[in-house]
Write the structure tokens for this entry.
Amino acid sequence: MNPPMDDRRALAEIERFLARDDPELASRMDALNGQFAEVRSERREEPHRRDWRWVVALVVAVVALLGMILTAVLMAPQTPPSNETPPPSGRAPAVSVTAR
């Protein structure tokens, strides 16, 4: 059996023992459960609506972050290997007109 079913079974057993040991308390608990049953059912419906929005927002944020990282990596200037000299930058050296 899966653990949630075991938990439900254990709680049901506790409730049965409570009803047998103290019927007055059990009747009060049943009355309270009946009063707040509507509140519980409304709360259960609400998070499902929010859950998918959070999932979509999280997926969009992760995709955007991965896109920015990938763009930064691919657009970075490539450095030449250390054993090669980099190409000259700036002006070319001047050539002397007089030669001996």
